[in-house]
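User: Structure tokens for this complex, please. No commentary.
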Amino acid sequence: MLESLKGAWRYRQFIATSIRHELVTRFARSRIGGAWMIIHPLSMVLIYALILSAVLSAKLPGIESQYAYAIYLTAGMLGWSLFSEILNRCLGVFIENANLMKKLVFPKIALPVIITGSCLINNLALFVVILVVFAVLGHFTPSTLLWVPVLTGITVLLALGLGLMLGILNVFIRDIGQLMPIVLQFLFWFTPVVYPAEIVPPSLQAVLAFNPLFHLVGAYHNVLAYGQAPSLIALVGLTVLGAGLVFVSALLFRKASPEMVDAL
Amino acid sequence: MNHTTKVTPKPLLEVRELGKAYRRYRNELMRVVSWFSTVQPQEETWILRNINFDVAQGEAVGIVGQNGAGKSTLLKMITGTLRPSEGYIRTHGRVAAILELGMGFNGELTGRQNVLHSAGLMGFTHAQVDAAMDDIEAFAEIGEYFDQSMRVYSSGMQMRVAFSVATAFRPEILIVDEALSVGDAYFQHKSFDRIREFQRQGTSLLIVSHDKAAIQSLCDRAILLEQGRVLQDGMPQDIMDYYNAIIAKKENDKVEITPLDSGQIQTRSGSGEASITQVSLHATNGNPLDVVDVGQEVELRITVAVCADLPELVIGYKLKDRVGQDVFGTNTWHTHQVEQQLSAGETLTYRMRFNANLGPGSYSVSLSLHSSDTHLTHNYQWVDHALVFQMVNMEKDFFLGSSWIMPTIECERQAAISSESNESV
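Assistant:
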């Protein structure tokens, strides 16, 4: 584990240029280039904020704004999108880079690090846009904003732990790559992102509590929508779970590593 | 006896009892289970086994073998992308491979950005790459294209940048694949020079090629792989002869090798439907020769016994120099003298007369009997080193090389032109 972290540090140059190149190539030969990085999340937030609020204009208890639903939705989306983006990309990371791994020797941990870096940049752009839009809508929760980096860290831990584990297994059992998008769909709807947790019947609430993302997205809601500190017990629980997943992934990786290139 | 005791340095590469197996499990889930338990694979396919060799500092070793012999698997294990299933590889120093030039290049980025990225992939830091950047740019010689996006490059230009960055830092072990045959002649020479220079500085080379000339001119040693095993390890020319024989080999053929007094190895192969019974070299007056003067007219006499009815018979001969490079070769197919409809029991005597316009040194004659134009179709017999003779320069002016191509030299001298006598009409 320590060894591979050292490897990642030795390859920091490769990691840095990879992240940069990913951004550069995404916007290469487009006129306004990097501005698209803001426009995409902005349009998403605006659609939620304006259209959904106008159509649904549902007030939520605890948020003093006519845009309450939009704010709730975007707050949850910030967490969910980071989680699902990292998970989705980790799932295919080894298969997509098969050629590279077959031909060159480099610490393979660099690959998920690159994914994390690039997802974090996307998430940061979304976060900045959200803050601006919230300010325009007159919704501001300065006291709890400092929690966002903590939540981001926990999200990364969970997504990486689960994503790497599935990514490694996906090299050998390709069905996982097909199954996961479906599972993610279910997970999305079993997590209160587009609906408030309160509307779920109490009998189901208990079931929902087994979903770790229920607590993660809940924390995002608390911090960004309600301006409250998140539940510490939930955060500690999530961190332990995330660390455990990362540990299992590292173990799996050590075992799978000698046979990984054979199977690619 | 030479008494200078050379300190033999530790080999840069040690390969011991190396083997690679691909394991198959009942299903892939069992493979995952096997990592944490004692579940045994259902089937093991050994791609390579019992491979042992060392490569010393500055040594160039050719790896030859037919497709599927395990060459790439071996190289991948030496590079480190594949893990051995048994045995080990010990390397001292960095291993670089010119296998896949331009891996990870991105068309949207400039040459310079790609160089930075791919050197990063080789594990170099920004500062190290920056320090080498001017050299890389200069070596690639693609001018201002270096700062343009790579999608406008020709494949040759991309190759140049890729080679420049791959060899920007001298590795201890360099693996060279046939990749080197890309690019124009000028750059090929330049890249060979660089590889040679690395070798002089102590880099060991591992060269994979089917090109006989490349193996023989570049390598000190060659290793022949066949079905995942080292079939032979020795002098490049011997290995290449043997390899040649294997390619020509047919089901009922046998390949036979005999060490000669000269220390070389004779390879004999073929179906035996026709065979060479006698080979000798004579002066024009009929006297046998084994030392030939430069430019002397000689006669090569070959007796062939036909052992089966054959529709056609072609005989070919080839002169090779001391290191096994071809000097001259032809056959009776090319000279339009194919013998037709031969019956078993016939004997043919060939007399081939030529002027031995060869440089001093020892030469060998390889012979082949076959149908049609090459020995690859119906190989009746193939004999390497069928005859060895010495060339000496007895009376000609001194010259270098293996060919005697004496020029007539003319020289015109003009007196220096002083400005006064410059009369232009």
